[in-house]
Protein backbone atom coordinates (compact mmCIF):
# COMPACT_ATOMS: atom_id res chain seq x y z
CA UNK A 1 0.00 0.00 0.00
CA UNK A 2 1.09 3.56 -0.68
CA UNK A 3 1.88 5.74 2.31
CA UNK A 4 -1.45 7.53 2.00
CA UNK A 5 -4.24 8.22 4.55
CA UNK A 6 -6.97 7.40 2.03
CA UNK A 7 -5.44 4.33 0.36
CA UNK A 8 -4.33 2.47 3.50
CA UNK A 9 -7.49 2.06 5.67
CA UNK A 10 -9.45 -0.09 3.18
CA UNK A 11 -6.42 -2.31 2.61
CA UNK A 12 -5.79 -2.70 6.33
CA UNK A 13 -9.45 -3.54 6.93
CA UNK A 14 -9.39 -6.09 4.10
CA UNK A 15 -6.30 -7.71 5.61
CA UNK A 16 -8.01 -7.94 9.02
CA UNK A 17 -11.20 -9.42 7.55
CA UNK A 18 -9.31 -11.90 5.38
CA UNK A 19 -7.17 -13.00 8.32
CA UNK A 20 -10.33 -13.59 10.37
CA UNK A 21 -11.59 -15.79 7.53
CA UNK A 22 -8.42 -17.87 7.63
CA UNK A 23 -6.58 -16.28 4.70
CA UNK A 24 -2.82 -16.02 5.31
CA UNK A 25 -0.99 -12.79 4.51
CA UNK A 26 2.27 -13.58 2.69
CA UNK A 27 3.34 -10.00 2.00
CA UNK A 28 2.40 -6.64 3.51
CA UNK A 29 4.44 -3.49 2.98
CA UNK A 30 3.97 0.27 2.81
CA UNK A 31 5.82 2.00 -0.03
CA UNK A 32 6.36 5.76 -0.63
CA UNK A 33 3.39 7.43 -2.31
CA UNK A 34 5.62 8.69 -5.12
CA UNK A 35 8.59 6.29 -5.37
CA UNK A 36 11.18 6.49 -8.14
CA UNK A 37 9.93 3.10 -9.32
CA UNK A 38 7.20 0.64 -8.36
CA UNK A 39 9.11 -2.20 -10.01
CA UNK A 40 10.83 -3.52 -6.85
CA UNK A 41 7.56 -3.62 -4.89
CA UNK A 42 5.71 -5.32 -7.77
CA UNK A 43 8.52 -7.88 -8.16
CA UNK A 44 8.50 -8.61 -4.41
CA UNK A 45 4.76 -9.27 -4.48
CA UNK A 46 5.00 -11.45 -7.60
CA UNK A 47 7.77 -13.51 -5.99
CA UNK A 48 5.32 -14.55 -3.26
CA UNK A 49 2.75 -15.63 -5.90
CA UNK A 50 -0.29 -14.80 -3.73
CA UNK A 51 -3.80 -15.83 -4.76
CA UNK A 52 -5.13 -12.37 -3.90
CA UNK A 53 -3.48 -8.97 -4.27
CA UNK A 54 -5.06 -6.01 -2.45
CA UNK A 55 -3.23 -2.87 -3.54
CA UNK A 56 -3.44 0.39 -1.61
CA UNK A 57 -3.18 2.54 -4.73
CA UNK A 58 -3.86 6.26 -5.09
CA UNK A 59 -4.18 6.59 -8.87
CA UNK A 60 -4.11 4.91 -12.28
CA UNK A 61 -0.30 5.04 -12.76
CA UNK A 62 0.25 3.12 -9.52
CA UNK A 63 -2.05 0.29 -10.60
CA UNK A 64 -0.66 0.25 -14.13
CA UNK A 65 2.90 -0.05 -12.77
CA UNK A 66 1.97 -3.09 -10.69
CA UNK A 67 0.10 -4.62 -13.62
CA UNK A 68 3.20 -4.16 -15.75
CA UNK A 69 5.45 -5.57 -13.06
CA UNK A 70 3.26 -8.63 -12.62
CA UNK A 71 3.12 -9.16 -16.37
CA UNK A 72 6.90 -9.02 -16.65
CA UNK A 73 7.15 -11.56 -13.84
CA UNK A 74 4.60 -13.81 -15.60
CA UNK A 75 2.36 -13.62 -12.57
CA UNK A 76 -1.42 -13.19 -12.55
CA UNK A 77 -3.21 -13.22 -9.18
CA UNK A 78 -6.62 -14.89 -9.04
CA UNK A 79 -8.05 -11.66 -7.61
CA UNK A 80 -6.53 -8.20 -8.01
CA UNK A 81 -8.26 -5.47 -5.98
CA UNK A 82 -7.00 -1.88 -6.00
CA UNK A 83 -8.12 0.91 -3.68
CA UNK A 84 -8.17 3.40 -6.57
CA UNK A 85 -7.44 3.35 -10.30
CA UNK A 86 -9.79 0.81 -11.90
CA UNK A 87 -12.65 3.26 -11.19
CA UNK A 88 -11.22 5.78 -13.66
CA UNK A 89 -13.03 4.49 -16.73
CA UNK A 90 -11.41 5.15 -20.10
CA UNK A 91 -8.25 6.51 -18.44
CA UNK A 92 -7.68 3.17 -16.72
CA UNK A 93 -8.34 1.14 -19.87
CA UNK A 94 -5.85 3.27 -21.79
CA UNK A 95 -3.20 2.72 -19.10
CA UNK A 96 -3.87 -1.04 -19.16
CA UNK A 97 -2.45 -1.23 -22.68
CA UNK A 98 -5.25 -3.37 -24.07
CA UNK A 99 -8.78 -3.66 -22.62
CA UNK A 100 -8.36 -7.37 -21.87
CA UNK A 101 -5.66 -6.54 -19.31
CA UNK A 102 -8.35 -4.78 -17.25
CA UNK A 103 -10.40 -7.99 -17.12
CA UNK A 104 -11.57 -8.87 -13.57
CA UNK A 105 -9.74 -5.92 -11.98
CA UNK A 106 -11.68 -4.88 -8.86
CA UNK A 107 -12.10 -1.63 -6.91
CA UNK A 108 -14.31 -0.35 -4.07
CA UNK A 109 -16.18 2.91 -4.59
CA UNK A 110 -19.46 4.70 -3.94
CA UNK A 111 -20.44 5.29 -7.57
CA UNK A 112 -20.16 4.00 -11.13
CA UNK A 113 -21.62 4.97 -14.48
CA UNK A 114 -24.40 2.40 -14.30
CA UNK A 115 -25.57 3.49 -10.83
CA UNK A 116 -29.37 3.23 -10.64
CA UNK A 117 -30.04 6.79 -9.52
CA UNK A 118 -32.18 9.14 -11.61
CA UNK A 119 -29.89 12.15 -11.14
CA UNK A 120 -26.82 10.04 -11.91
CA UNK A 121 -28.36 8.57 -15.04
CA UNK A 122 -29.21 12.06 -16.29
CA UNK A 123 -25.68 13.30 -15.62
CA UNK A 124 -24.08 10.28 -17.32
CA UNK A 125 -26.29 10.71 -20.39
CA UNK A 126 -25.33 14.38 -20.62
CA UNK A 127 -21.64 13.57 -20.13
CA UNK A 128 -21.63 10.95 -22.89
CA UNK A 129 -23.51 13.32 -25.21
CA UNK A 130 -20.85 15.95 -24.60
CA UNK A 131 -17.70 13.80 -24.58
CA UNK A 132 -18.68 10.48 -26.18
CA UNK A 133 -17.83 7.01 -24.95
CA UNK A 134 -19.90 4.57 -22.93
CA UNK A 135 -21.26 4.31 -19.40
CA UNK A 136 -18.16 2.34 -18.38
CA UNK A 137 -15.87 5.08 -19.70
CA UNK A 138 -17.11 7.67 -17.19
CA UNK A 139 -14.70 7.83 -14.25
CA UNK A 140 -15.76 8.28 -10.63
CA UNK A 141 -14.10 11.70 -10.38
CA UNK A 142 -16.83 13.11 -12.61
CA UNK A 143 -19.54 12.14 -10.11
CA UNK A 144 -17.49 13.29 -7.13
CA UNK A 145 -16.93 16.76 -8.59
CA UNK A 146 -20.54 17.03 -9.73
CA UNK A 147 -21.76 16.03 -6.25
CA UNK A 148 -19.70 18.79 -4.64
CA UNK A 149 -21.46 21.28 -6.88
CA UNK A 150 -24.85 19.82 -5.97
CA UNK A 151 -24.15 20.02 -2.23
CA UNK A 152 -22.94 23.61 -2.48
CA UNK A 153 -25.95 24.57 -4.60
CA UNK A 154 -28.40 23.12 -2.08
CA UNK A 155 -26.60 24.83 0.81
CA UNK A 156 -26.59 28.23 -0.92
CA UNK A 157 -30.29 27.99 -1.75
CA UNK A 158 -31.18 26.88 1.80
CA UNK A 159 -29.12 29.60 3.53
CA UNK A 160 -29.81 32.33 1.03
CA UNK A 161 -26.19 33.23 0.48
CA UNK A 162 -22.54 32.18 0.38
CA UNK A 163 -21.55 32.74 4.01
CA UNK A 164 -19.13 29.96 4.99
CA UNK A 165 -20.39 29.99 8.57
CA UNK A 166 -24.02 29.61 7.48
CA UNK A 167 -23.19 26.89 4.98
CA UNK A 168 -21.13 24.93 7.52
CA UNK A 169 -23.92 25.20 10.08
CA UNK A 170 -26.44 24.01 7.51
CA UNK A 171 -24.33 21.06 6.37
CA UNK A 172 -23.91 19.95 10.00
CA UNK A 173 -27.59 20.38 10.86
CA UNK A 174 -28.51 16.77 10.18
CA UNK A 175 -30.04 17.56 6.81
CA UNK A 176 -29.90 14.81 4.16
CA UNK A 177 -28.89 16.09 0.73
CA UNK A 178 -29.35 14.42 -2.65
CA UNK A 179 -26.56 13.97 -5.21
CA UNK A 180 -25.66 11.81 -8.19
CA UNK A 181 -23.76 9.64 -5.70
CA UNK A 182 -26.86 9.14 -3.56
CA UNK A 183 -27.69 10.59 -0.16
CA UNK A 184 -25.28 12.83 1.76
CA UNK A 185 -25.54 13.21 5.54
CA UNK A 186 -22.52 14.82 7.19
CA UNK A 187 -21.49 13.76 10.69
CA UNK A 188 -19.51 15.87 13.18
CA UNK A 189 -16.25 15.01 11.38
CA UNK A 190 -17.56 16.03 7.98
CA UNK A 191 -17.83 12.45 6.79
CA UNK A 192 -20.81 11.32 4.72
CA UNK A 193 -22.46 8.82 7.06
CA UNK A 194 -25.05 7.93 4.40
CA UNK A 195 -22.56 7.12 1.65
CA UNK A 196 -23.27 4.12 -0.55
CA UNK A 197 -20.58 1.43 -0.66
CA UNK A 198 -19.97 -0.95 -3.54
CA UNK A 199 -17.27 -3.12 -5.09
CA UNK A 200 -16.86 -3.10 -8.85
CA UNK A 201 -15.12 -5.34 -11.38
CA UNK A 202 -14.31 -5.06 -15.07
CA UNK A 203 -15.82 -7.89 -17.14
CA UNK A 204 -13.82 -10.65 -18.86
CA UNK A 205 -13.06 -8.50 -21.90
CA UNK A 206 -12.25 -5.33 -19.97
CA UNK A 207 -14.99 -3.42 -21.74
CA UNK A 208 -17.78 -3.22 -19.14
CA UNK A 209 -17.48 -1.98 -15.55
CA UNK A 210 -19.90 -3.94 -13.35
CA UNK A 211 -21.10 -3.70 -9.77
CA UNK A 212 -20.40 -7.03 -8.00
CA UNK A 213 -21.03 -6.24 -4.31
CA UNK A 214 -23.18 -6.11 -2.20
CA UNK A 215 -24.14 -9.62 -3.26
CA UNK A 216 -27.80 -9.12 -2.32
CA UNK A 217 -28.18 -6.03 -4.52
CA UNK A 218 -30.17 -6.90 -7.68
CA UNK A 219 -27.82 -4.66 -9.69
CA UNK A 220 -24.76 -6.77 -8.73
CA UNK A 221 -23.27 -9.23 -11.22
CA UNK A 222 -21.45 -12.44 -10.29
CA UNK A 223 -17.80 -11.94 -9.31
CA UNK A 224 -15.20 -13.30 -11.74
CA UNK A 225 -13.29 -15.45 -9.26
CA UNK A 226 -10.18 -16.02 -11.41
CA UNK A 227 -8.58 -13.20 -13.33
CA UNK A 228 -7.66 -14.09 -16.94
CA UNK A 229 -3.95 -13.98 -17.78
CA UNK A 230 -2.46 -10.77 -19.13
CA UNK A 231 -3.37 -10.31 -22.77
CA UNK A 232 -0.76 -7.81 -23.99
CA UNK A 233 1.82 -5.27 -22.93
CA UNK A 234 0.73 -2.82 -20.23
What would you say this structure looks like, in words?
- With 234 residues, the chain is α+β, with helices and mostly antiparallel strands.
- Helices cover 36% and strands 12% of the residues.
- The protein has seven helices and seven strands; from the N terminus they run ααβαβαβαααββββ.
- α2 crosses α3 and α6 (140-159) crosses α7 (164-171).
- The two termini are 20 Å apart.
- The mean pLDDT is 95.
How are the secondary structure elements laid out?
Blueprint: H1 8-20, H2 39-48, E1 52-55, H3 60-72, E2 79-82, H4 90-95, E3 106-109, H5 118-131, H6 140-159, H7 164-171, E4 177-179, E5 182-184, E6 198-202, E7 209-213
Short description:
The protein is of the alpha+beta class and 234 residues long. It contains seven helices and seven strands; from the N terminus they run ααβαβαβαααββββ. The chain is 36% helix and 12% strand.
Key features of this structure:
single chain; 234 residues; alpha+beta; three-stranded antiparallel sheet; two-stranded parallel sheet; 7 helices; 36% helix
Radius of gyration: 19 Å
Distance between the termini: 20 Å
Quote the average pLDDT: 95
Q: In percent, how much strand structure appears in the residues?
A: 5-15%
Report the sheet with the most strands, covering strand number, pairing sense and barrel closure: 3 strands, antiparallel
The string of secondary-structure elements, in order, is HHEHEHEHHHEEEE
Tell me the number of helical segments per DSSP (H or I, 4 or more residues long).
7
Task: Please tell me what the overall shape is.
Answer: globular
Helix content: 25-40%
pLDDT under 50 segments (min length 5)? none
Which structural class matches the secondary elements? alpha+beta
Across the major sheet, the strand order is: 3-6-7
Amino acid sequence: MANDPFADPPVQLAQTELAAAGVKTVYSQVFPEEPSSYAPAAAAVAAKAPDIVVLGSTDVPTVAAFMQGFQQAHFTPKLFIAAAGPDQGAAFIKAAGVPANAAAMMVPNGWYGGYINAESQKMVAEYIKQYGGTVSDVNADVAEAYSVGQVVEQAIIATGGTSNADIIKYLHSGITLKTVQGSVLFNSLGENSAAAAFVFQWNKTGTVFNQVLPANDPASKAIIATKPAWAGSV
